[in-house]
Fold:
Amino acid sequence: MQVDRRAVRNFDWLLFSLVLFAATAGVLTIFSATRPLEGMPHPNFYIKQIIWTVAGIGAMLLTIKIDYRRLERFAVALYMMGLLLLVFVLVRGRMGMGAQRWISLGGISFQPSEVFKLVYIIMLARYFSMVEAPLDTRRFMKMLPFLAFLPFLLLVKQPDLGTAAAMCMVFLFLCIARGMSKKLVAALLIFGIVSAPFLWNIFWNRFLKGYQRDRIVAFLDPGADTSGIGYNINQSKIAIGSGMVLGKGYLKGTQGPFRFLPENHTDFIFSVFAEEWGFAGCLVLLAVYLAILLRALDTARQAKDEFGGMLALGVAFMFAIYFFLNIGMAMGMMPVVGIPLPFMSYGGTAVLSNYVAVGLLINVRMRRFELFY
Structure:
């Protein structure tokens, strides 16, 4: 098979290298976090993560091969399929850890919400690239039920509060990036101030499960029950703080292998990393994530068309939200909402969706040149 030299030359090697760095750090941290006590077999989570990473890179390359402008034509169809998957998981989905978020097909399970977040960004990119800026109240209210309320309710119903919150923030940030009229901004501010207590009361009593309320209470008052509802956040802080400046050293952390820290290879993988590599290691990791975000924003700035720009911007916002929510959660600055750290946290569907998102960024960046048109 002949390789197009122009594609190799214009491939975003910097973004790919940054992502591989974070993925490598993830595999190493998963290996350390899940290492057993003496005499016990080592779980194969890190091997599965390597397999998913390789599969993710393959999915990324396939995504790059497809001209992103084709996605604009099929955005509505993809979005409808995504909504149908969210409905299907509520009807026939598999329960796990108090949530109905997975679909099992032939022995393989996947999370429809991870697929949906990509098609959601594609749909938003199509819509915002077509409407005239700035957004006025009429256009905003017209798209609100179909592009905001419906997916939010389907995600909260699973419940997948983390993804629901992240997608709402992506929607809001893209609205701001596209531009909103002064009347719309004023209307949203007034509505938010007046209705916030009423909507919060409905959300708290009708939508939140008991364990989700406990997580919010633990966030607002971490010292209320450090051995109960505040246990996760408290142990995460202990792990991060015990790393100090230079860390305890790789494979020398205690919070993970001794099982003090729950979900140490998924939601709280940053805490395990911080314990072993300390403040200095965290600075390096955060610099890598910041570079990924800046590269994504630069891709949006250099995009050839409106759709490509909004698509890259949506992916950039998604990554930024996931980065800040997960790390903020680990540090006790955000409620525990089950948001994975991209490229580092263990997971199958999440890893694949993140690499497809990177493929979309590289796709937009490569095709900004005339030779690809």
Q: What stands out?
A: Residues 5-372 form one domain. The CA atoms of residues 12 and 205 lie 47 Å apart. The first strand starts at residue 94 and ends at 96. The chain has one domain: 5-372.
